[in-house]
Specification:
- Keywords: Membrane, Transmembrane, Transmembrane helix.
- Belongs to the TMEM121 family.
- This is Transmembrane protein 121 Protein hole.
- The chain is mostly helical and about 325 residues long.
- It has one domain.
- It contains nine helices and no strands.
- The longest helix has about 40 residues.
């Protein structure tokens, strides 16, 4: 059993739990609003039962995550993020399906539904990055006393937050008002692709923080930039470009496309620079090893000469002693 967090971390744990509960409660409000009439009671019972089970698990996982806030470990924080995102995205999926099945025949209903959809996007874009930053808790790490080390990890987390907003923006295009609907298989593939990214990539970033000690090792924090470069910066450009060219979706975010282009350039340059530094750091080590070993022919010659000299000394000394005895 993990001990309870110190008094300094209790406020952090309570604030994190409150934000998680509020975000899930707002998603429950969306579900209840979309199911009026006789279905409201059944949906309410199912939602309350699920929230009760979630609160039981949250009570322990939040305490465990709070016990490691001031250390480099982020194992329970990864579990909490995975569990929270799993529950949140399931509720988002049902909300998205209800929006998809609604009949927008009246103009007033169209305006009201559009505002609620934008509010849903705003809710996700605020709660998910905030909870991730609180789980990372860079300001609570006691071993990061130098300002440079703290800012280096904070700059890496800034890219994670931008990637979260990018994925939420791609996912939000599915339920926000569009001129023409996308095919069903395209919508399902896009939603669950974003779902997997939201589950896995923040956990990868938290695991990189877990591997850091007093000295920050750069090669232990290169997994997330490589994965985000391939799965977010490249793929999301293709998704937005396909929606724009094939389906004529004019609501594609040009700002996020520009962000992805800049991220591809910067991350590619940083990866090339890191590879040059790693190879340049490996060359002096090879030279030192070669200089310490020396020429193999010389070493063999020395190994053959030295035993011969020793044998000559051992054999000549006794002969000199015998000649002196005869004289």
């Amino acid at each position: 059993m993990v001990p309870s967090p110190p008094a300094a971390n209790k406020l952090h744990v309570c604030l994190l739990a409150v934000l998680i509960i509020i975000s899930l409660a707002l998603m429950d409000a969306y579900l209840l609003e979309q199911n009026p009439g006789p279905r409201w009671i059944g949906v309410c019972v199912a939602v309350l039962a699920g929230d009760a089970c979630f609160l039981i698990v949250l009570r322990y996982v939040a305490v465990w995550a709070g016990s490691e806030v001031q250390t480099a470990r982020r194992g329970y924080a990864m579990v909490l993020w995975f569990f929270y995102t799993f529950i949140l995205e399931i509720k988002v999926y049902f909300v998205y399906q209800n929006y998809k099945s609604q009949d927008l025949g009246v103009v007033a209903e169209v305006v009201e539904t559009g505002v609620s959809r934008f509010a849903l996007t705003l809710l996700l874009s605020l709660c998910m990055p905030t909870i991730f930053i609180m789980l990372a808790a860079i300001d609570h790490l006691d071993y990061l006393q130098p300002y440079r080390k703290r800012e280096e990890i904070r700059s890496r987390l800034f890219w994670v937050v931008l990637d979260l907003l990018d994925v939420v923006d791609v996912q939000a295009n599915l339920w926000e008002l569009q001129r023409e609907g996308l095919p069903t298989w395209v919508e399902g593939l896009t939603f669950f692709y974003c779902y997997i990214l939201l589950l896995v990539l923040p956990c990868v970033s938290l695991s990189e923080i877990s591997m850091q000690g007093v000295n920050i090792v750069p090669h232990k924090m290169m997994l997330y930039p490589v994965l985000s470069l391939a799965t977010i910066n490249v793929i999301t450009i293709l998704i937005r470009g396909g929606n724009l060219l094939i389906y004529g979706d004019i609501r594609v975010s040009g700002i996020m496309m520009g962000k992805n282009v800049m991220a591809i350039i910067l991350k590619s340059c940083s990866l090339v620079q890191y590879r040059k530094q790693s190879t340049s750091a490996a060359d002096p080590e090879d030279k030192v090893q070669k200089s310490s070993l020396g020429d193999p022919h010389i070493s063999k010659a020395q190994s053959m000469v030295l035993p011969r000299v020793v044998i000559q000394d051992l054999t000549t000394l006794p002969e000199e002693e015998e000649e002196d005895g005869d004289a």
